[in-house]
Structures are given as structure tokens and as C-alpha cells.
Amino acid sequence: MAVILLGSLPFLLGVLALAIRRTGRRFRDYLALTWPRRRDLLIGLGVLIGVLAFNAGLALYADADTPNFMTGTYESGREAGLLPLLAIAFVFAAPVGEEVLFRGFIYRGLAARLGVFLTILITAALWALLHI
């Protein structure tokens, strides 16, 4: 899984770059890639920590088991000696690919024609289908 995620990211970015080039705009401008302000980054990090803590608390309260898919992926990565590669794939490659594809490329392409609300619904549904 790590090899697929890491190997497909350059391909995905390349295909998107070619498609964006056809619009006559720069990749960075089309996807609105800008660095967040320090304040926004700290707020986001604080909210993320809060959400993760809340989810962990709910999981403990509900006595929820970790899904087999997650434990199986971890175990196979550990057995193959590829846990660092798996971590990079899950923490970097997958989120970057998803953000660029869904909230960058697809959102940007549909929002002007369909409006913000409908575009958010469509990209959220597509993202959810990818994860089913």
C-alpha cells in the first residue's frame, strides 16, 4: 500500500499539472497553494489535537475495536520492515494527493459552474466513495 501511494502521487500530480496547463494558469495559482499564516496554522493544529483527543475518548467510552484493515496494514508494514515508508505514505502522500485532487482540482473546476454548496457536496461524496 505504501509503494502504491508513494508511487502514484507523482503520476497524479503530473496528470493534474498537464490538465491545469491547458487552462493557461500556473499549477500553484490554479490550486491556490499558499502558505498559511502562523496563527492559522496554530489554530488548525489545536483543533486537530482537540478532535483527535475527542475521538480517542469516544473510542474508549464505546470500547471500539481498531478495524482489521488498519491493524493488518500496520502488521504487514512491520513484518516487511517498511513502517517508515508506510508512515510517509499515510501522513504525506495520501493527504497531499487527496487535497490536491479533491479540494484543489475538482473543487476548482466545478465551483464556478455549480456554486460552492453543490460543489462541496459533490467533492465530499466523491471523497467518501473513494474511502468505502
Question: Can you describe this structure?
Answer:
With 132 residues, this protein is mostly helical. 82% of the residues lie in helices and 0% in strands. The chain has helices at residues 2-21, 27-30, 38-62, 68-79, 83-114, 116-130. Helix 1 (2-21) packs parallel to helix 5 and helix 5 packs antiparallel against helix 6. The longest helix has 32 residues, at 83-114. It is globular. The mean pLDDT is 91.
Briefly summarize what is shown.
Helices cover 82% and strands 0% of the residues. With 132 residues, the protein is an all-alpha fold.
Structural class: mainly alpha
Name the average pLDDT: 91
| End-to-end gap | 16 Å
Fraction of residues in H or I helices: over 70%
Low-confidence stretches: none
Radius of gyration: 18 Å
Shape: globular
Main sheet? none
Oligomeric state of the chains in view: single chain
Helix and strand sequence: HHHHHH
Annotation field: number of helices: 6
Approximate strand percentage: under 5%
How many beta strands in the DSSP annotation?
Answer: 0
